[in-house]
Amino acid sequence: MKTHIFAFTLSIVLCLTARAGLKWDQTAIELHPTVTDKQAIGHFKYENTGDKPVKFKSVKTSCGCTAAQTQKEEVPAGEKGEITATFNIGERTGTQVKTVTVETDDPANVTTVLTLKAVIPQQLEITPTFVFWGQGEAPKPKTIVVRAAKDFPVKHLKVTSSSPDFRAKVEETGNGQFKIDVQPQETNRLIASTLTIQPEDSQKIFYATARITNARAVQ
Amino acid sequence: MVKSSLVRQALILVALAFVPGFVQAIFFWDKVSWRSPVPASEMVTVTQARAWGENTIWVDARPDNEFARDHVPGALPLNEDRWSELLPQFLAAWSPEKKVVVYCSSEGCNASREVAHRLHKEAQLANVFVLEGGWEEWLKEKR
User: Fold this and answer.
1) B91–A117 CB contact, under 8 Å
2) Which of A71, A117, A144, B2 is the most exposed place for a label (fewest CB within 10 A)?
């Protein structure tokens, strides 16, 4: 009896494998775009190894920032193709994982989830990107710490305040780190400034904000 | 006798099906999921967020075209496509006593989690919450 049940299970598994439709080269891709890249593109290649054509019913992405394109709506038996997933990096940072869910009419493999992982390099890590004072608070300086990534050594940092009401002083603290002391001239008026932070020899600009709020500051 | 044997074998097959799941849970527990984790204390329902009234800043983390189509009244756009351009506008409206509620399209989207994470980590703001169910849930509750 045991043998019969295992034989039955095995035969079902073998049948499903034998008539498998789309066979994917890989369902997960990791990309390492450069600092200047605007997009990260993954090519998910497949082959119809079954004996019947396979139709794509839907291709959905997990994020509005990712678009997926099939080359054809129907894949004849024996044919190859690919789904292209284009991830628009925008101003995203760090590791981003986006998925593409593919639905086909192949009963053995109705849904396949393709994963696109993009590791976006971060040239500067700025903490915090926002400093504030409560109205009437003592106008003492507040510090922003800037750390350069190992792969992007920075010797000098240029910091500019968009408003003369705030002063920004940069100091190199070693090991690719900088300290920016931001100080308002006064805190009686609700004023704000955008601080432009630019590493020497780099086109890329980073930002921080300084502001006097109408409430007491949380220390 | 035959019946108990069948049940035993069925249980063995079910147990075998769990093996890959356990292996993944043990060896790949720290791998990045496609959704950023948010502590339960930082999730908020539409009803809770509405109860905060004027003390709430609604932040729309969806792409610009979806925001332009419709959004929570008074919401500010803040997405990662135009982060440095939109962030100062949001910060101009922010004050320490306000609660920030970030939403994206639906339960399955991740943009609100990413935006909330950056407001916490980079701007070091407190009281930042992610709306459960996103815009879809807000529309349902509005009816």
Assistant:
1) no
2) B2
Q: In this structure, are A135 and A203 located in the same domain?
A: yes
* CB neighbour list of residue A218: distance below 8 Å, 6 or more residues apart: B96, B126
What is the mean pLDDT of the segment spanning A16-20?
52
**Cα–Cα distance, B44 to A20 (Å, whole number):** 44
Residue in the structure block whose two tokens are 């003592």:
A138
Contact yes or no for B34/A99 (Cβ under 8 A): yes
B 7-26: CB under 8 A from A: 9, 13
Q: Do residues A101 and A136 both lie within one domain?
A: no
β pairing state of A130-134 and A111-120: unpaired
Q: Which residues of B touch A1 (CB under 8 A)?
A: 2, 5-6
How far is CA A137 from each of CA A123, A187, A190, A212, rounded to the nearest angstrom?
34, 6, 12, 9
Give pLDDT, residue B2.
64
Among A120, A154, A189, give the residue marking a domain's end. Answer: A120
Tell me the per-residue pLDDT of A182-219, one tens digit each, with 9 for 90 and over. 999 999 999 999 999 999 888 889 999 999 998 764 44
* Closest chain B CA to residue A90: B81
Residues of chain B neighbouring A61 (CB-CB closer than 8 A): none
What would the pLDDT profile of A122-150 be if each residue is shown by its tens digit? 889 999 999 999 999 999 999 999 999 88
CB contact under 8 A, B81 and A88: yes
How many domains, chain A? 2
Residue A151 tokens read as: 């792969």
Domain boundary among the residues A120, A137, A155 is at A120
A145–chain B nearest CA distance, Å? 11
Q: Do B95 and A130 touch (CB under 8 A)?
A: no
Residues in chain B within 8 Å Cβ distance of A99: 34
